[in-house]
Design brief:
Layout: H1 11-21, H2 30-43, E1 46-50, H3 53-63, E2 71-74, H4 81-88, E3 92-95, H5 107-113, E4 118-124, H6 133-142, E5 146-150, E6 158-159, E7 162-163, E8 170-174, E9 187-191, H7 194-204, E10 208-209, E11 226-227, H8 238-248, H9 251-269, E12 275-276, E13 284-285, E14 291-295, H10 300-309, H11 325-328, H12 338-346, E15 347-350, H13 358-371
Parallel strand pairs: 2-3, 2-4, 4-5, 5-8
Antiparallel strand pairs: 1-9, 6-7, 6-13, 8-9, 10-11, 12-14, 14-15
Helix pairs in contact: 1-8, 2-8, 3-4, 3-7, 9-13
Length: 376
Amino acid sequence: MLPYGRQSISDEDVAAVTAVLGTDWLTTGPAVTRFEEDLAAVTGNAAVAVTSGTAALHVAYAAAGVGPGQDVVVAPLTFVATAATAALLGANVIFADVCDDTGNLDPDAAKAAVTASTSVIAGVDYAGHPIDASVLSDIAHDAGALLLEDAAHSVGGRWHGHRVGELADLTTLSFFPTKNLTTAEGGAVVSPSPSLIAGARGFRNHGLVRDRDAQRFPDEGPWHQEVHAFGLNYRLPDLLAALGSSQLTRLDAFVARRAEIHARYDAALADVPEVRTPSRRDGADPAWHLYPLRVLDGRRRELFEHLRASGVGVQVNYVPAYWHPVFEDLGYRRGMCPVAEEYYRQEISLPLFPDLTDADVDRVASVVRAYFGYGS
């Protein structure tokens, strides 16, 4: 079975991880610091490494002070974590619809969803295409809120020349194996704000205060540490951080190869009227994580099953977040965001990862074409 996503691990990656095993620091050590510095060089702002993309969202919302009595506007065409982590902090999640072309948060819908209690607007770089950050930033800031960019799909991408990581008040990254680079499990929070970075660092480490000048009882002893606000253990181990730094040396190559594969699919499927290939807006230089093909006329499930039966791994990304029973039980109902729901009904993710060969791409495209009655 050809997978729809797969990590790319080199001998250098293995050596980087193995080297850490010979040191005294398996966690909370110098490899984490180096990885954060390497991420900052790629994203343009300070980075806080954490254990997953979900942890990054939780940490970012906590650093923003999200809590009960606050509203967080979220795009629904995303993995449930974008919304769940805000809800876990006690916020009221308000879903706003997406743009039909990109699947990204629609600025008009986001603006209509803003209330006097809105503290964060969370847009998702769906499939790797950056959000319309300048417009969404203005909407958020006019409301006294922050813009969070869920960039789990898009590290290495750009929007009108600006790097992902420079576009929002808070940016969250994911390094799951199928993403654009991997630390096995892992994520990061990126921000230009020293106070938000400090809040993220505190929350990922139980809220511990070790700075004597900041402690309430500094004379307790040299061993003393305090918790002033609750946090959790979201520390990324040095083993995984070393893998991340090694992977970052190939990020540009990963992004370039993903773009080549994307373009090859586009060309192969351009004349098939039963499908709709992904859109790319002017000014976008995506780091494509997914190839989200749109299957028209209600035939998505049939094509999905046909591809799987033909040995081609495919996925659907995503069930609208509020369709999950946990949100249904909170009173959310289907029909709230019709554009996102129609996008979901049509979407199928074709295989896309750097080690995918041109022959693999051509094979997948041929299976799709043949299903609709077109030759190669």
